[in-house]
Amino acid sequence: MNEVPVIAIDGPTASGKGTVAQRVAAALGWHYLDSGALYRLVALRALQAGVAAADVAALTRLARSLRPQFDAGRVCLDGRDVTDEIRREDVGALASRIAVHPPLRAALLDLQRGFRCPPGLVADGRDMATVVFPDAGLKVFLTASVEARAGRRHKQLSEKGFPSNIAILLQDLRARDERDSSRSAAPLRPAKDARQLDSSDLAIDEVVAQILRWHGER
Ligand code: DC
After folding, report:
1. Percent of the chain, pLDDT > 90?
2. Residue to substitute in 17, 19, 35, 41 for testing ligand 1 pocket (most ligand atoms within 8 angstroms of CB)
C-alpha cells in the first residue's frame, strides 16, 4: 500500500481545476500531476504520426511509450518543449476523443501513479478520485456553470491575443462535457466520497483556501 498522501481534484473542462490544483500543490510543497496533459501528449503524438482517433492499438502503443518530462511548469516530449502546443484547441478536442478508449487509459495508469512521491501529490483530471487514486485522502469535484467556464476561457484567450466567440465556446464546452461524462470508460463523475465545490461565483483564492481548509481538517 502506498502511504504517500494524495489530493484528487476532478471536474469538467475549464472549471479552473488546473490552476487550483497547482496552487494547492505549491501551498503544501507537494508534487502536481496534470493528467489531462498526458492525454493531450498522446493526442499530439497521434496528430504528428497521422494516427487516426479510432486506431486503438496504435494509440495505445503511443501511450505506452510516452516518456514526458515535467519541469518547472514546462513539459518536454521526445526532447522538445511542447507546453504551448498541447494547449491548442485541436489537441484538446482530439485528447477528449481518444480518451474514450479503455486500453489507452489503462496504458497511462502506471505513468500517472508514478507521480505519487513524498511528501504528497495533488492530481487533477477527470478520474483521479474514481480510478487512478481511489484511496486519495481528499477528493474534490470542482464544478462551475458552463456559462462561467465559457466566460473564463474567453478571458484567457483574449488575454493571449486570440479572438474567440462566446457562443462557439459554449457549444464546444457542452460537447466536451457530454463526451467526457457519457463515455463508458472512467466517465467524468464525482466519486461517492468526493466533496463538491461549485466555483461559478468564487475567486481562485477562495477555492484554494477551501480545499486547504478541508485538507487541514483531516
Ligand atoms: O483537462 P484537459 O482539458 O487538459 O484534458 C483533456 C482531455 O483529456 C479531456 O477532454 C478528457 C481527457 N482526460 C481524461 O479523460 N481523463 C483525465 N484524467 C484527464 C483528461
Report:
1. 78
2. 35
Q: Which atom of ligand 1 is nearest to the CA of 99?
A: 15
The verdict on the CB of residue 116 being under 6 Å from ligand 1 is no
Helix (H, G, I), strand (E, B) or coil at 13: coil
Give the whole-angstrom CA distance, residue 218 versus residue 28: 14
Q: pTM for the full model?
A: 0.92
For the domain covering 6-212, report its CATH number.
Answer: 3.40.50.300
Residue 126 corresponds to which cell in the numbers above? 477527470
Phi, psi of 105 (to 5 degrees): -60, -40
Q: What is the pLDDT of residues 186-202, one digit of tens each?
A: 888 899 999 999 999 99
**Which residues face 186 on adjacent strands?**
none
Question: Does residue 1 carry a pLDDT above 80?
Answer: no
DSSP per residue over 44-102, as a string?
HHHHHHT--TT-HHHHHHHHHT---EEETTEEEETTEE-TTGGGSHHHHHHHHHHTT-H
> Taking the domains of the chain in order of start, what are their residue ranges?
6-212
